[in-house]
Amino acid sequence: MYSHIIFDLDGTLIQSLPGIATALNDALAEHQLPTHSTDAIRTFIGDGAYTLCARAATEQSEDTIERVHQSFLKEYSKAWRNGTIVFEGIQELIGSLKSMECTLSVLSNKPHSFTTEMVDYFFPDKPFDLVLGQREGVAKKPDPSGVHEILGELEQTSNNSVLVGDATIDIVTARNAGISSIAVIWGYHGLDQLTSVSPKHIAKSIDQLIEILTPKNVPAFR
Ligand SMILES: O=C(O)COP(=O)(O)O
């Protein structure tokens, strides 16, 4: 059983696609650039806000992409509250893991300020022992630095830790850091994509994630 669980944020704990899509399309429109369907935007998410904008504003200069990026950050600060929800069953799972005294953390490629603000907003009981988003000067996922920093800060070992994520980048990050991984399929990458990077476990539903993370004989879950 894993006693330390590192959660990805977007597409794993929260459904953030509508807020991201609104903010991105508003930012693109501000710069007279073509907008995208929500389905297309889903495929742009995962590598942080700048890369999101670079994928949306293809063939634009770096200066233009940076301007779209700045507009996106401004728009997203207004858009995320109305366009984001916690996936069904996640609050209960987090509560159960806390009652089992698991150590919990979040590692996201979303800008750090949004990551902490949104986690505080959606999880006001502060169940996470450490929350890290993308920070200036720190390599983002799939670099293992974030995982290593969390393990060090929380005095956890690679053996007892697992990273739960919805994107191939999360599974590759776990492998690069030498920890186990669980791919969940309710987020932004499909089963085939996730299978191609060989996660240790695959959860096709919140119930399957509960099965993997919590032993059957713990009364709190049954
Ligand atoms: O905002 C992103 O690009 C990705 O965020 P995530 O790492 O929480 O999935």
Automatic annotation (TrEMBL):
- What would be one Gene Ontology cellular-component term for the protein? cytosol
Pfam families, per database record: HAD_2 (PF13419)
Q: InterPro entries of this UniProt entry? A: HAD-like_hydrolase_sf, HAD-like_sf, HAD-SF_hydro_IA, HAD_2, HAD_sf, PGP-like_dom2
One GO biological process term: DNA repair
To which pathway does this protein belong? Organic acid metabolism; glycolate biosynthesis; glycolate from 2-phosphoglycolate: step 1/1
Q: What class of enzyme is it?
A: hydrolase
- EC number, UniProt record: 3.1.3.18
Q: Which reaction does it catalyse?
A: 2-phosphoglycolate + H2O = glycolate + phosphate
Any one Gene Ontology MF annotation carried by this entry is: phosphoglycolate phosphatase activity
Q: Which PANTHER family match?
A: PHOSPHOGLYCOLATE PHOSPHATASE
| Record-stated family | Belongs to the HAD-like hydrolase superfamily. CbbY/CbbZ/Gph/YieH family.
Q: What is this protein called?
A: phosphoglycolate phosphatase
